[in-house]
Amino acid sequence: MRTIDFYFDPISPYAALAFERLPEALAGRSIAVRYVPVLFGAVLKSLDNKGPAEIPGKRDWTYRQVSWLGHRLGVPLDLPAAHPFNPLPLLRLLWATAPAGQTPGRYAVERVFHHIWRGGLDAADPQRLAELAADLAPMRDPASAEVKTALREATDAAVARGVFGVPTMAVDDKLFWGLDAIDMLTGYLDGDAWFDGPAWDLARTLPVGVQRG
Q1: Sign of CA dihedral 151, 155, 161, 165
Q2: Sheet strands side by side (includes 2-8)
């Protein structure tokens, strides 16, 4: 059985939509999915980059597009009361639900995504966070050093693997970024001959024609 690593930060609406779509897209294939929460802000910092919600205009477009995509895909998606917000408590809670050395299960990930992207409520509200933690009953303390280390190490490992955005789906030596990459991912899993051609590696070797100062 092959394994896909699903790198995500629940702050990303695209990750929320990809999470919902992935089971249907992978149906009929012998595939296991590891859900790997990472801190998107740290990934961006490592690349000296900004997230979509930090860029005027792109922020507005992001919210419009994900609302449309949810409608188009038949996936309920409500914008939270405020976005972006600090996702660290949710990320640490996810890692706390998993035994040491393992990643969170799909149920916990689904509960966190729904906490943010269903109902239009405040994802960072302390009372709601406490209720979510009580529901998930983590086996480790989300504020413990070991949980914080697990999140940091997972994020560092993702960056080292080449992850630059979320969601990213990694299988074998290939990374597939974004909700719209799921069809490309399934093409690879199904042995599409395109992946045997030069296009994949050509993208890495194409010369840069000009760089902005």
Answers
A1: positive
A2: 31-37, 2-8, 168-171, 174-177
Cα end-to-end distance, the chain, whole Å: 47
How far apart CA 31 and CA 23 sit, in angstroms, is 10
Residue with tokens 């760089």: 211
Identify residue 26 by its one-letter amino acid code: L
- Write down the pTM of the prediction: 0.97
Contacts of 88 (CB under 8 A, 6+ apart): 39
**DSSP for residue 84:** S
Name 148's bridge partners.
none
Mean pLDDT across 11-25: 97
More confident residue, 212 or 25: 25
CA distance 199 to 188: 13
User: Could you give all domains of the chain from N- to C-terminal order, each with its CATH number?
Assistant: 2-205 (3.40.30.10)
pLDDT-based confidence at residue 21 (cuts at 50, 70, 90): very high
Query: Contact 166/40 with Cβ under 8 angstroms?
Result: yes
Contact present, 6 and 169 (Cβ < 8 Å) = yes
- The span from the CA of 146 to the CA of 91, in Å, is 13
pLDDT in tens, 94-138: 999 999 999 999 999 999 999 999 999 999 999 999 999 999 999
Give the integer Cα–Cα distance in Å for 208 and 202. Answer: 12
What is the pLDDT averaged over residues 165-174?
Answer: 97
